[in-house]
């Protein structure tokens, strides 16, 4: 698997979270233990400011290197995971409408001819 | 607030709505639903999508609308115009297009390959000579009434609707007609098929009384404050059929963690609205400082909610008296760089999870109403927009 941009190689332990769609990241979050989510959250938390500064340099409409995309997808996944860590304190919030009956689509599913980042 | 508003201020503004409890039968009766179908759904504009979803000739959407017993194709023609047709092949009635969306050069029926052009005219019939005195021009697809409002595409089941689309928006033309829809991109759709009545479903989104309980884990600190512990609405405007509700934001809320990172680059759910120093077109109709977002119900089954940096829409698709399909589409400021998109991911995913909280009460509520052990719903002044929804339906069924 391709890695991360040089300044962020220390985050390679979380590369499995570099998933391109919201649905994939949501499912991965729900299918994980709270301990694993906390570990991913903790890995990126001290570096997220730097990650955001770095990603802020890239126009979202440009063709991007795989390493940049991986870091971007990991940052998106960190936002996903933050919901479990900061608010719900469990991977899937209990008592809410069942995830398997709740459908998540992205613009690539909805806009005919959509080209994604 | 220097001059505290009267405690029951919305009732004082709309005394004609009364204060009586609302019978639950309107949510549990199949017969009532059939009357709604005839009087309301058959005379309503249904939002089927936005212009940008089908930007090129041949791009199409298919919408099955159970409430009016129709499947509708919405397709962009060679001339760039968007048209709508009943999704019925004029040969032997097969469902013409079976995918939810796509791009085609012509609409080809899967049964015998009858082919219609993008304008709905029958263009090709295999083995045409075998048909008796056959004239293709007599077998065009059946057109459906279509109109657009600010890029939203609507269809109507009547050939000559009693009221036009613009007229149906009524006061909302002034309140949200100039919102920056064109500057935003679709970022997600969340949907669910829920076992509850369509009105009961909408009710969950036109009051903020539930925030304290239902959203205690997700968003309570964003919305509820010491000064406003029950998240009283900033304002309510009840129109002839439509409804507008403006929601409060907690000015003491200090973003931390992921929200703080997101808020450095983008609006987030309420913080952008709270911080707006100038009025954004199509938002904050009450002109309140501690404002989060506005909800507008376009009767009967469409919602547009506007804020700083985003808007979203809800489609409710009534199926039976106790089943409703729902779709939420989220649109956000066009992100110019990847950090902005990461910021939006925070707001998007938290809102998505918050909506699962909202949906959690619906099926239990419907099932318990159907036990017959509650006859009436008792509504507070904060739930006046709920009351208004039932009163509008009642009035239209009586006409």
Defining traits:
heterodimer; A: 117 residues; mainly alpha; 5 helices; B: 399 residues; alpha+beta; seven-stranded antiparallel β-sheet
Q: Would you kindly provide a brief summary of this structure?
A:
The complex is a heterodimer of chains A (117) and B (399). By secondary structure, chain A is mainly alpha-helical.
Low-confidence stretches of chain A: none
How many distinct helices of chain A? 5
Distance between the termini of chain A: 19 Å
Structure summary, number of beta strands of chain A: 1
Shape of chain A: flat
- Average pLDDT figure of chain A: 95
Order of helices and strands of chain A: HHHHEH
- The dominant shape of chain B is globular
Structural commentary:
The complex is a heterodimer of chains A (about 120) and B (about 400). Chain A is mainly alpha-helical. Chain A has one domain (about 5-110). Chain A is about 45% helix and about 5% strand. In chain A, helix 1 (about 20-30) crosses helix 4, helix 2 crosses helix 4 and helix 3 packs across helix 4 (about 65-90). Chain B is an alpha+beta fold and about 400 residues long. In chain B, about 25% of the residues lie in helices and about 25% in strands. Chain B has helices at about 10-15, 25-30, 30-40, 165-170, 170-175, 200-205, 210-215, 220-225, 255-265, 270-275, 340-360, 360-370, 385-399; strands at about 20-25, 45-50, 60-65, 70-75, 80-85, 100-105, 105-110, 115, 120-125, 145-150, 150-155, 185-195, 235-240, 245-250, 290-300, 300-305, 310-320, 325-335, 375. A 7-stranded antiparallel beta sheet of chain B has the order 2-11-10-5-4-3-6, with no helix packed on it. In chain B, strands 12-18-17-16-15-14-13 form a 7-stranded antiparallel beta sheet. In chain B, strands 7-8-9 form a 3-stranded antiparallel beta sheet, with no helix packed on it. In chain B, strand 3 and strand 4 (about 70-75) form a beta hairpin. The interface between A and B is large, with 44 and 51 residues. Strand 1 of chain A pairs antiparallel with strand 12 of chain B.
């Amino acid at each position: 698997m391709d890695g991360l941009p040089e300044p962020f190689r220390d985050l390679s332990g979380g590369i499995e979270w570099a998933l391109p769609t919201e649905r994939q990241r949501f499912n991965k979050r729900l299918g994980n233990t709270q301990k694993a989510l906390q570990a991913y959250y903790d890995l990126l938390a001290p570096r997220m400011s730097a990650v955001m500064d770095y990603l802020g340099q890239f126009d979202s409409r440009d063709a991007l290197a795989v390493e940049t995309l991986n870091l971007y997808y990991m940052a998106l996944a960190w936002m996903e995971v933050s919901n479990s860590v900061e608010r719900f304190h469990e991977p899937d919030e209990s008592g809410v409408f069942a995830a398997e009956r709740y459908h998540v689509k992205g613009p690539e599913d909805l806009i005919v001819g959509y080209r994604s980042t | 607030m220097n001059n505290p508003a009267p405690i029951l201020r919305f009732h004082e503004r709309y005394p004609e709505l009364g204060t009586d409890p609302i019978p639950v039968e309107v949510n549990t009766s199949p017969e009532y639903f059939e009357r709604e179908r005839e009087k309301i759904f058959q005379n309503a504009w249904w939002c089927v999508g936005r212009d940008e979803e089908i930007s090129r000739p041949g791009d199409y959407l298919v919408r099955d609308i159970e409430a009016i017993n129709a499947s509708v194709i919405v397709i962009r023609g060679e001339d760039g115009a968007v048209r709508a047709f009943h999704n019925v092949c004029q040969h032997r009635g097969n469902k013409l297009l079976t995918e939810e969306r796509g791009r085609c050069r012509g609409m080809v029926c899967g049964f015998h390959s009858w082919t219609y052009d993008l304008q709905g005219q029958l263009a090709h019939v295999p083995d045409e000579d075998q048909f008796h005195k056959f004239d293709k021009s007599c077998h065009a697809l059946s057109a459906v009434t279509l109109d657009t409002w600010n890029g939203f595409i609507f269809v109507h089941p009547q050939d000559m609707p009693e009221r036009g689309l613009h007229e149906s928006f009524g006061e909302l033309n002034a309140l949200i007609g100039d919102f920056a829809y064109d500057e935003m991109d679709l970022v997600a759709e969340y949907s669910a098929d829920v076992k509850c009545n369509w009105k009961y479903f909408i009710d969950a989104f036109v009051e903020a009384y539930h925030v304290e309980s239902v959203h205690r884990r997700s968003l309570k600190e964003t919305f509820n404050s010491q000064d406003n512990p029950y998240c009283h609405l900033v304002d309510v405007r009840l129109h002839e059929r439509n409804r507008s509700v403006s929601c409060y934001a907690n000015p003491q809320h200090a973003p931390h963690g992921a929200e703080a990172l997101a808020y450095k680059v983008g609006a987030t759910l309420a913080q952008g609205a709270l911080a707006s120093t100038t009025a954004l077109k199509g938002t904050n109709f009450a002109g309140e400082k501690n404002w989060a977002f506005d909800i507008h119900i376009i009767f009967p089954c469409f919602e547009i909610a506007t804020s700083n940096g985003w808007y979203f829409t809800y489609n409710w698709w009534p199926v039976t008296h106790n089943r409703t399909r729902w779709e939420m589409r989220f649109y956000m400021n066009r992100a110019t760089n990847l950090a902005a998109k990461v910021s939006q991911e925070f707001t998007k995913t938290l809102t998505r999870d918050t909506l699962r909280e909202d949906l959690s009460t619906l099926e239990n509520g419907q099932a318990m109403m159907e036990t017959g052990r509650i006859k009436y719903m008792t509504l507070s002044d904060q739930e006046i927009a709920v009351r208004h929804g039932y009163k509008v339906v009642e009035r239209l069924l009586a006409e």
